[in-house]
Each structure stands twice: as C-alpha cells, then as structure tokens.
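Fold this: Intracellular proteinase inhibitor BsuPI domain-containing protein
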Amino acid sequence: MYLGGCAQGAPQQAQSSAVILAQADAAEHDGSPINKTPPAQMASGLFKTALVVAQEDGRMKLNFSVHNTSGKDLSISHGSGQHYDIVVYDSLDQEVYRWSVNKAFTQALIVRTLQKDDQLSFNEVWDLLDSEGKRAPPGDYKVQVHVMIGLKNAEISPDELTDTVNVTIR
C-alpha cells in the first residue's frame, strides 16, 4: 500500500518517534501543568497604594489610590469592570465584610496609560454592616483595599496594590 509518497512504514515510524519524544518529555516533567508560555516576571517598585479611612456619621469613608512610582508611563489593564476590592477583618482575622459580594461586573479588558507620578483614586463608604447585613459590633477591625490592575509583560507584586488600615468601631 502506498501512503502519499512515503513508504508504507514511514507513518508508523513517525508516530513511534512522537511517542518516544512524549515519553522522554514526561520523564523530565515534574507533574505540574505544562505551560508553553514563560511565566511573567514579578515587577516591584512600580506602584504605591494608599488608604485613608475616616469614621463619620456611623459610616467609614474610604479614600484610596494607587500611585505610579516607576518614573515612566505604564500601560495598565483591568480584566473587568471591578477595579478594586475592599475586605474588612475583625480582631480574630475573620472576614466581616467584602465590598464585591453581591455585585456584578462587566467582563471587558480595559487598557489605559497611567502616566509617571499620576494616580488612580477611588472613594467608597462602608456602612458598618457585615456581609449578612448586621451591624458590626464595636471593636478593632482591619480594612484592606486591593487595587486590581495588571501589566502586559509582568506580574505586579501584590504588596504594591494593597494597603491595610486598622480602625476601631465605637
């Protein structure tokens, strides 16, 4: 039997070679998922996130920003309409409130330039209710904000996009 210009045994030989190569690759593989894309490099020293919290009229006013400290313009992206999240923890480090719970966000890639020394600023209010809608009791809490931005060819150190402030509810 003739197979497209190759001797009858040639396709079988090629298939055997592929199997042998796959077995050799598998022997060197450590068991983690194979990823053909090289891992993004961790970038640091590019951003500084700051959070200021003020308790007024039975609510916490949260003003926060992420500042481009890289010394150059950066193309940043958001993977959705959610640009940040806010989480509140009690004195036992139990999550009490998460801003994004029960919210819907658009799924869209948003790319923009954050110029050197410029910042993105946000304002939110926590009404001192926990995730179940109950008033948070007086005590010490930790308010943490995480800004959700990315870079095309690098992974941003999470520490640069997060800030935490300790507060007391009276």
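The CA atoms of residues 140 and 168 lie 4 Å apart. Residues 10-28 form the longest helix (19 residues).
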